[in-house]
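input
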Amino acid sequence: MRKLMSLIAAVALVSACANRPPTSQEQGALTGAALGAIAGSLIAAGTGGNTATAAAAGMGLGALTGAMVGGAIENERAETDNPPTSAASTSTQSTAAARAAQPGSGTYNPAAGTIDPTVGKFVNGTRWRLEIYVDADPKDLEGAAGIVLNAQQSQPQNLDLGPHRIIARAYVETQFGTRTVGRYDRTVQVDPRGSGWTLHFTEGDFR
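output
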């Protein structure tokens, strides 16, 4: 009987491992079952009990104990291969990412550069055509290079820091030809502390 139970346990172990390598839990269960069956049959034979019943009981108890031991070994291996990330490490990484996304936090961001105060534009907010002159001689506008803006148009323009005299003339087209609407003549200041400038012409600016 002992040889029979040992053979059954060995066959079960081999058949379970035939298709794939056994896990630690499976290997523990099979080993425990085999050892339990052998131990149960030996005890029954020595005490005069039912060998088959003792072997079956020993096999069940051995399988349960072996599975528990094998499962514990698997859990320990899993924790060793995949150590948990500490809360402090996660917090540090999140803080670093947040700082990198914020301008002025010590991380260079090309989009957060200083705005050039000399960069600006002229905007024609009128219904008329404008001729604009920058720092030109008011007595010789005809010989100066002007900027022409049609109604509701705009054009980028760079002006150095400091004062600049801006002269603009507005014209309207009529059935009798081009007529002058009015004239704009003012001095504007480009501030070095500014963030760019815009000169928006309105119809009320021309007299």
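quick obs: The longest strand covers residues 177-190.
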